[in-house]
Write a structure and sequence with these properties.
mainly alpha, two-stranded antiparallel sheet, 11 helices
């Protein structure tokens, strides 16, 4: 196997018409997915969120990658596109969230606690932890009443690591829009992985306006949810 990355620069010629009756000039339309999107095509606009969310690259790293392959692009464009150019995906993220809640009988969080119920050991810190765990005994033993519940929180811990690794690279977001788009694409990316959908193909399908691939929410409904990484 191998990979080849090349630029694909296209020059569009548009017919221009002037209407004496209206006093206006009309230009022919560009192809779907290109019209009104400036000088960068669907491939670049689809690659930015993939590199940012799934590949965990910084905006500087994305800029360096593009420039290494001869793309004349600015850091300002990448930042602006990342925070403002993917509104279509916010609705999809909301649908994934709603469907996910409707298909499960429980929700996991990363809140690890020792499963000990004896009352005293003579060690203050351990006794304090046992006391706190004892207070959660009813919740911890719910698995006996509901066998479908996992007996550990490995899945939520693994999911939390994605956020932690992103923080290692980008520390934190600088705006509400940045937080929203980060959460949206983290949801899109991780859900696509669990469903066996190639994230880039999915993003490209939506950015191009084709929307031929079924939504991730619909796939969840079809399959009865997403598998847990236990």
């Amino acid at each position: 196997q191998d990979i080849k990355i090349i630029t694909d620069n296209v020059k569009y010629q548009r017919e221009i018409f002037y209407s004496p009756s209206t006093g206006k000039t009309y230009a022919g339309k560009l192809p779907k997915g290109i019209e009104g999107e400036g000088e960068f095509g669907i491939g670049i606009r689809s690659l930015i969120p993939l590199l940012k969310s799934e590949c965990n690259m910084s905006e500087k790293g994305i800029l360096d990658l593009f420039q290494n392959f001869g793309i004349s692009i600015s850091s300002a464009y990448i930042s602006n596109r990342w925070t403002k150019g993917y509104d279509i995906f916010h609705n999809e993220k909301d649908e994934i969230y709603k469907i996910g809640l409707s298909l499960t009988t429980f929700q996991q969080i990363d809140d690890t606690g020792a499963r000990l119920f004896s009352k005293a050991t003579g060690y203050a810190d351990l006794d304090d932890r046992i006391s706190k765990t004892l207070n959660k005994k009813q919740e911890l033993l719910l698995v006996l009443k509901y066998p479908e519940l996992p007996i550990h929180n490995n899945a939520s811990e693994l999911a939390a690591r994605v956020q932690a690794r992103d923080r290692d690279v980008s520390l934190h977001t600088m705006s509400e829009a940045g937080t929203r788009v980060k959460d949206t694409f983290m949801t899109i990316s991780q859900t696509a992985k669990k469903l066996g959908v190639r994230t880039y193909e999915y993003i490209y399908d939506r950015v191009s306006g084709a929307c031929k691939m079924p939504s991730l929410a619909d796939l969840m409904l079809e399959r009865g949810g997403v598998p847990l990484d236990l």
